[in-house]
Design a protein that fits this description.
This protein is an alpha+beta fold. The protein is built from 13 helices and five strands.
Length: 307
């Protein structure tokens, strides 16, 4: 199954800002959608824009194309309005999540977590950079680390924060889109951290990783609740950003038949919706619960049309 086949088109929200950005002897505009990347790519294809003009969340288009794009439906907005719309949609890719920035930011984070082990950090970063990853990649790693920062602030000590951060670094270090990924990642953590941390600390990191197979931490497990909520932060993003996440998941499972992918995905999402609460921390539940439930329900409705 081609992972692009899963995209859906919503006919609204193509925006373009004035051609103010100099490059290559001309000036460029930014063409975006505040609804979905699918809509943006479809509009660009109709207009004959080359794929190389796409840059993560927008197309760079020369001013010579501006009038025709507007005539064909792109809405003229100011540069500030375009950025605000893109941020509000959740489709904006901040500079820190761009490939040229990610390795530097993550390397600095690792250095703060385990200063004596730079080689281990490089090994993990290499695993997270594998080409077959579409969602479970360096952006997911950084997003998880950032969610841990917010969820744990004022609630954990330095040792506990280190364990949470190590669990994040290892939790999808092995990713082959199989049911064994969590177990293999936990094994890798135990192998690499043995002799560096105490047996108790290594066991805790391993236990946190294994929790992500079902996201069912015990009420008494403070670190487990924080870590599971951080891993599920993506479920509560604005609908267009959630769609981008779902499309990336479909790409990772493109080796499955579309109906089998839908059945498995419906089962996973349904198990989350069946829980009294998806998020088990007070902060996570207050900020993310309602949006996550809406996103999961909408995706299940879409997946049912594949069956």
């Amino acid at each position: 199954m081609d992972c692009l086949e899963t995209r859906t088109l919503v006919l609204m929200g193509i925006l373009i800002d004035p051609p103010l950005w100099p490059a290559h002897g001309t000036f460029f505009s930014h063409l975006v959608s505040d609804t979905s990347l699918a809509e943006l790519h479809d509009f660009a294809a109709v207009q004959g824009l080359p794929q190389r003009a796409f840059d993560r969340d927008h197309y760079d288009v020369p001013r010579e194309r501006y009038a025709q794009l507007v005539a064909d439906g792109a809405l003229e907005v100011t540069a500030n309005e375009l950025v605000k719309a893109l941020i509000s949609s959740g489709l904006r890719v901040p500079a820190k999540y761009r490939p040229e920035k990610l390795n530097v930011i993550l390397a600095r984070r690792w250095a703060r977590t385990m200063p004596p082990e730079p080689a281990l950090g490089r090994q993990l970063l290499s695993l997270w950079s594998q080409e077959h990853r579409h969602y479970h990649d360096r952006v997911h790693l950084l997003s998880t680390l950032e969610a841990i920062d917010w969820l744990s602030k004022g609630l954990v000590n330095g040792q506990e924060l280190m364990l949470l951060q190590l669990a994040a670094w290892f939790h999808d270090a092995v990713y082959e889109a199989t049911a064994e990924d969590e177990a293999k990642s936990a094994i890798l953590a135990r192998e690499r951290l043995n002799g560096i941390l105490s047996e108790e600390a290594v066991a805790k990191v391993s236990q946190l990783i294994l929790l992500t197979a079902g996201h069912n931490p015990q009420e008494s497990d403070k670190l487990g609740r924080i870590f599971c909520d951080a891993d599920l932060e993506v479920l509560a993003r604005p609908a267009p950003a959630y769609q981008r996440y779902a499309d990336a998941i479909y790409c990772e499972y493109a080796h499955y038949a579309k109906t089998d992918l839908a059945k498995g995905r419906i089962r996973i999402l349904g198990s989350l919706l069946d829980k009294p609460a998806i998020y088990s921390t007070e902060r996570g539940a207050e900020r993310w619960e309602a949006a996550a439930r809406a996103n999961l329900s909408a995706e299940i409705d879409l997946l049912k049309t594949w069956l």
